[in-house]
Write the structure tokens for this entry.
Amino acid sequence: MAAITRLYVRLPNWVGDVCMSLPALHLLQKAGLPLTLCARPWARDLLAGLPAHDFVPLSGRVREDRAAVAASRRALDRQGRGARGLLIPDSLSSALTFRLAGLACAGFRDEGRSLLLRWPIAKPDPTLHTVQAWHYLARTALQHWNLPIAEQMPGPSLDLPLTGLHVEAAQALLRAQSLREHAYVLIAPTAVGLHHGRIKVWPHFDALTRALQAAGHAVVMCPPPAEADQARANAPTATLLPPLGLGAYAALAARAQLVICNDSGVSHIAAAVGARQLTLFGVTQAGRTGPWSPQAHGLGSDLAWPEMNAVRSQVDALLTES
């Protein structure tokens, strides 16, 4: 097999999934592969702190994305034969995009796309956490390519590196709001869309916010602009901070005394920077997609949201520990 001069990695389309792919990316970088990350535009800022890599923004439209990947290949892989692809999502469109861009790819067998893959990989045990499954995918691809494997299993944390600009933006916002580091509770009382027709937001954020404020805690939230109205409706007395980019938001989460959120992208961003967090489950399962961090705590299940008293008790315990 010819030496791999560049690996194009197709990342997932959701913030939480990109965070859960970090151990796989770390493994690929430890193998010495020059990476080009292909993902939605917002991922560029979130992943800006990763060691040297290139980035191709994707639109989700096959024709446009094929052209973007092909243009990157012409600019970065002038030999034309040393590039490979790794598909973390198991969609047919991701395999088709890379195949049309001329990349020989590894990826999970799914959606009848095996014929588009040079190295189709059978999915592992379905009970594995998503972090473990994607680490297995990267590890198996490295085996196919006869490249060194630094570890057999992902570590206990996601290890998202932040840039100096991320940290400076978060610190500037805290100064402007007269907030001290590790002296505020960051809540995320929103979640986009429905899960099998069920609302993905814990229904008691307002009551919890008022109780924490009565106990003397500063409670803040920093939703994206599209979710600001929902955040105000769900926690009207919380301090609404100006929106931040994802990297700066991660730095803000890392400096919170506690992050309280639904099972959403915020829970995975908090996990990625090792923030102390409480994730509330009501429509999803923690076993496969919960936050991957030793600092992550959870309440509830896919069958029912936790009661207010149970959440308040857990929050008080975590704040005392911190």
